[in-house]
Design a protein that fits this description.
The chain has 770 residues and is of the alpha/beta class.
Length: 770
């Protein structure tokens, strides 16, 4: 029987009670076990001891900030970071022989985990029109094929250039420069699918798309909200920062539909208390919220704060800050006072007492930080929710001062740096004007395609060329069948990659695999050994320098690939020194320094220990939005009404997974192993739907277009989710997220609060806890 594209190896599903704490000695053991399966002890040690160190290798995983130089642990990494870096440093290799043995049609039926485990790509490969096999191609011919396709396009806007956060700043800048010199702003990126809603809301309200806090702020906050995020699996080093904050007296409120282990207790394996002691309780209060209820929660708290001010005038709100630094307060206040408590309680699934207790925590705190991630941004009303979080912060002056502020937690290492470098389909005129002055051409001004609109354009035949710089676009995108159908309509698809993934099996008429250096590897160019730079979630820009010998002598760096493609496509008359850029990345940084505010004297400053801290204008009282002030907003909260017999499904990542790629079928903290095809449902809902633990069901999405979207053959696992809600892993369930279901204003896909029904298959009730 042919396997599904996302089917894992057959293992027996085992379900145990969810863990009540994260990390500890088991995290160290699992990290070492996986690392030694991939590479030697010597290579693993070389990467791990250089990881996140000054002049070392930046973790290719999450974008969490590093402690200041001199305060970093010798082992400054987490379990998932260790797995991620040694997954890249693996000694397994994918050669031309592999592709001769495995046709594309066979690879398309393999799981994401299996594809990843084959190892590092070693030479450029091409799939010709009509062929079912990749075959070797020289770099010269690969660049010629791409240049021929690009110059034959009817318009530059028939090309799309996608970027993942794995790319360094130099490659990101080179890619956007090439695309704009070609004549298009079609520069979608992974931020379109993870934090676009954050950027939109923060730009509108504060005049910046970035967070406003530093690690120091987090360490010294009085109260920290962790909303719609799971640090224990997705950015575990945040737990160390939270541990420090707790030591300094902070209180933490966790807001999540699932009781994630990392939100409950952290056992830091780098401290005696974490190894032999009980560790640190992270969440002082846990709000078991209904999926999508966060907007209503913050509106409820805001209403209560306004009423507290009524009772004690001048003692609750920061009236001076509101008067001097904000606009729109009166309109906002009138709106929030009119929000119905019945709607708030129905949306959140919480009691009024729980919300009032949250207000009391706020009133006891002078400095408040709100952290959030994709549990907030991937909803239809995501922009409104982030705007309401900003309203909450503004009320008591928790913006622009120490120990307080907004903290969107980015999920991929340099996704924020990509934006700083110009990877955005809607870069401001000031950036485009700077490109014109620096390089002597007029960049296109019309907005380009984001990820969702790029898929629509491919589906409609308006895009013929797709280039992916890192990432796994097909598996990250929504509406999997529609996305794959769209990508296959391209004349040429090309991917700059380190490892095999599903996107390589979803091909245009022609397809190229362009293998590149990993972040762990030495990058030697004509001027000598190079380093790249990256930007973390807290706007710190620093270096990353590889240590290992490249996986193959045929690998090129991302910068080299893009520079040679640009030179071959645009010719020598473009006036842009592509050859110089390839030879010396410092030449790229010199140009960036004259274009990007805050990166002046880039080459010298970035090599200092700790790198460059980009200034956030909000922290200097400058708001670069239309109002010229921090903006209070009015946000409409609509209660999600779910038909009887249906649930609200959120997609999520397992513990042993990075982005779209599962390393194993283990989800240790949730007590699940052996299979990823599980759906987590509250025990009362399991009984109410007439189901039993371990029963096989299909997840059937309900959407207005009457198209049935079905994720087949999942096992029901009773789990302490919020009532009426369910959860299942992505990318297996991305098929259920319609391409047309997007966040209002930001156009970000809505992978959360998907209305589904669980349709029974042949029952196999052997997955009960035990």
């Amino acid at each position: 029987m042919k396997k599904r594209p996302d089917e894992e190896p057959d293992e027996a599903l085992k379900v145990t009670e969810p863990k009540a704490w994260a990390a500890g000695v088991p995290a160290v053991a699992h990290a070492l076990e996986y690392s030694l399966q991939q590479t030697s002890a010597r290579r693993a040690g070389e990467t791990l001891l250089a990881m996140n160190q000054v002049d070392g290798i930046d973790c290719p995983g999450c974008a969490w900030a590093d402690p200041a130089p001199g305060r970093r642990h010798r082992n400054e990494y987490c379990e998932n970071g260790a797995k991620h870096i040694n997954d890249e440093a693996t000694t397994r290799r994918v050669t031309a022989d592999f592709f001769r043995e495995h046709p594309v049609s066979e690879l398309a039926g393999r799981s994401d985990a299996w594809l990843n485990q084959q190892g590092r790509l070693t030479e450029p490969m091409v799939k010709r029109p009509g062929s079912d096999f990749y075959e070797p191609i020289s770099w010269h011919d690969a660049f010629g094929l791409m240049a021929e396709e690009l110059t034959a396009l009817g318009s530059p806007d028939e090309a799309v250039f996608y970027t993942s956060g794995r790319a360094g700043n130099e490659a990101a800048f080179t890619l956007q420069l090439f695309a704009r010199a070609l004549g298009t702003n079609n520069l979608p990126d992974c931020s379109n699918m993870c934090h676009e809603s954050s950027g939109y809301a923060l730009h509108e309200t504060l005049g910046t798309g970035k967070g406003t806090v530093s690690l120091h702020d987090l360490h010294h906050a009085d109260l920290i909200f962790l909303v719609g995020q799971n640090p224990g699996s997705n950015h575990p080093r945040q737990l160390s920062a939270l541990e420090q904050a707790k030591r300094n007296g902070a209180r933490v409120i966790a807001v999540n539909p699932l009781p994630e282990a990392g939100l409950l207790r952290f056992r830091n394996p780098q401290t005696p208390r974490g190894v032999i002691g009980p560790g640190v309780q992270i969440a002082d209060r846990f709000l078991h919220i209904r999926s999508g209820g966060d907007l209503a929660l913050f509106q409820g708290v805001n209403r209560l704060l306004l009423e507290a001010e009524d009772a004690r005038p001048g003692e609750v709100l920061d009236r001076d800050f509101i008067r001097t630094d904000t606009a729109g307060f009166e309109e906002f206040a009138a709106h929030v006072r009119g929000v119905d408590w019945g709607d708030i309680l129905a949306s959140t699934g919480l009691t009024r007492e729980e919300i009032e207790q949250t207000r009391d925590e706020v009133l006891r705190s002078e400095r408040v930080v709100v952290c959030w991630a994709m549990g907030i941004t991937q909803h239809k009303h995501a922009v409104a929710t982030v705007r309401e979080i900003v309203n909450f912060l503004l009320l008591r002056g928790n913006v622009g001062r120490a120990g307080a502020g907004a903290c969107p937690v980015r999920g991929h290492s340099n996704v924020q740096g990509d934006r700083t470098m110009g990877i955005w389909e809607r870069m401001p005129e000031s950036f485009l004007d700077a490109l014109r002055r620096e390089f002597g051409f007029d960049p296109p001004r019309a907005h380009g395609l984001d990820s969702v609109n790029a898929i629509k354009a491919m589906r409609e035949g308006r895009v013929r060329f797709f280039l992916g710089l890192a990432g796994n676009f097909v598996r990250a995108a929504p509406d999997s069948a529609v996305t794959e159908q769209a990508v296959r309509r391209c004349r040429l698809t090309a991917h700059i990659s380190t490892k095999l993934n599903r996107s390589h099996t979803v091909c245009g008429e022609s397809a190229l695999i362009l293998p590149t250096l990993g972040r762990t590897e030495r990058d030697v160019q004509a001027s000598g050994e190079q380093f790249v730079t990256v930007e973390n979630s807290m706007s710190e820009v620093h270096t990353s320098r590889g240590r290992l010998r490249p996986a193959s002598p045929l690998l090129l760096s991302e910068v080299a690939i893009l520079s040679r493609l640009a030179r071959r496509t645009l010719g020598s008359g473009s006036g842009i020194p592509w050859e110089e850029f390839e030879a010396d990345y410092g030449a790229i940084r010199d140009r960036i320094a004259r274009i990007v505010p805050g990166l002046h004297d880039y080459n010298r400053r970035v090599t200092r220990p700790g790198g460059i801290q980009l200034t956030n204008p909000v922290n200097e009282g400058v708001y670069s939005n239309a109002a010229g002030r921090a903006l209070f907003t009015r946000n409409v909260c609509e209660v999600l009404r779910v038909p009887e017999g249906h649930l609200l499904l959120q997609t999520l990542r397992s513990h042993d997974q990075w982005n779209t790629v599962p390393y194993t079928s283990e989800d240790r903290y949730r007590g699940i192993s052996g299979s990823r095809r599980v759906v987590l449902v509250h025990p009362d809902d399991v009984a109410g739907l007439g189901l039993v633990a371990g029963q096989n069901v299909d997840l059937v999405g309900v959407w207005t277009d009457a198209v049935e979207r079905r994720a087949e053959d999942f096992r029901v696992v009773p789990y302490p989710t919020a009532r009426g809600c369910a959860a299942a892993y992505y990318p297996e369930t991305n098929v259920l997220a319609p391409l047309e279901s997007v966040a209002e204003k930001s156009n970000q896909p809505t992978y959360k609060a998907i209305v589904v029904r669980l349709e029974p298959r042949a029952s196999r009730p052997d997955g009960s806890r035990g």
